[in-house]
Amino acid sequence: MTLLNGARTPHPLRAEWLRGFAPWAGAAVPLTLGGMLWATADRWQGGWSETAVRSHTGMLIVLPLAAAAGCWQGGRERRRGTEELWATTVRPPLARLLAAALPGALYTAAGYLVTVALALLATWPYAYGDRPHPELLPGDAVAVAAGALAGHVLGRIVPTRLAAPLLAMAGYLGLGIVAAGGPEYARPLSPAALARPGELPVWWQPWAMAVWTGGLAVAAVLAYAARRRVTALLPLAAAVAAGTLLAQTGDGLWRTDPLTSRQVCDTSTVPAVCVNARYTGMLPQVSAALSGVTDRLEGVRNLPARWADRDGAPRGDEARLPGLTPLGWSTVRGRLTDRRQFAWEAVAALSGRGDCPEDAGAAVTARVLVADDAVESYLAPDESREDAAVPGGDTAEDRRRRAARTRLARMGEHERREWLSAYFAARSGCDAKEVPAL
Predict the structure, then answer these.
(1) For range 195-220, the mean pLDDT
(2) DSSP helix/strand/coil, 114
(3) Is the pTM of this model over 0.70?
(4) For residue 342, how many other CB atoms are within 10 A of its CB?
(5) How far is CA 113 from the centre of its chain?
(6) Average pLDDT for 379-407
(7) CA gap 67, 73 in Å, rounded
(8) What is the pLDDT at residue 389?
(9) Any idea of the CA torsion for 295, 298, 300, 302, to the nearest 10 degrees?
(10) Cis peptide leading into 326, omega within 30 of 0?
(11) What phi, psi does 201 have (nearest 5°)?
(12) Which H or E run includes 263?
């Protein structure tokens, strides 16, 4: 619109988009979700799947926050005492509602998307395999916007200032209960349903979730403000259809990432060193951490074929690689936190691979435990571990262990290889009685 002097008047919606409550609501999302992500960065920064899961987990906070922001905005006219004044305008009720509700819905959804994008950028320098996983973003963004719209309608209906904080608390508790172990039929319907690293949604799940949450919000808006409220039945029917599909599919909404079952190996050593394909770039670092062990095992027979990084029990010819996951423990931002500890755990896995029957443990004697300790000390020496004080002082058992370590270290190369070969043959055969003495 142009005045007589040529100046343009601002659009009536400009204030809602630029100077209203909506920009503040949008800014609250990065501050809240970003703070949570920053506090737990060690647990996701460096893994694409972990980043996606942690960002999606933030829906437990973002969705109630968006709904509460919409609810507060919805009660604005009542707090100002301008409801009757707005009712006299020529603009229809639906247009007035959308003019006030849409900015908040879009700002909160945009705030969520911006925060996730920043999290992906923070992961990129430290990711050593896999790829970004944006599959859940369409469903999450629509759910945030839908929560703000539905909250806005509730704010217009409920005549109390406490509606917004109560809605936020109820939403957080409800989503948390469903995510932590609520009814099985409700989990697939929750936009904040928890996922695990290494899992991916089926291709249509985010879009069905968007129809489910968006349809319910649009139905609420039309039922409240449309001239023909019967039109609310169309988005409601779409939401019911999408919700039925989600509920009936249940656990089938998630599938295992094919990379999780793949191994990438360094076969230049014996045993070979394998890591999960999701962390391919960490293989040189892991091989370097175990290089001291594999150098000392050169020429030794009866070893497992490889250290494997896979879920479940290791196979018969494998030893379990110390866990690179969950992130935040042995691995932080793509780096091993303690290489000596990692090597020691790898050596311990060589002698006790967990594939022996339970009754085999009955034959483990003090002599076997002394041999295990000597092998671990020789293959993965750690002065801090060996010099640690033992409660009760220097016992006879301590002296036997130190003597065994010394004898193994002072053996000739050929003699030590033969002894280690016999030791690993006995341990891999689950025959503790055949473990050679020291």
Answers:
(1) 94
(2) helix
(3) yes
(4) 21
(5) 17
(6) 74
(7) 10
(8) 47
(9) 80
(10) yes
(11) -75, 150
(12) strand 263-266
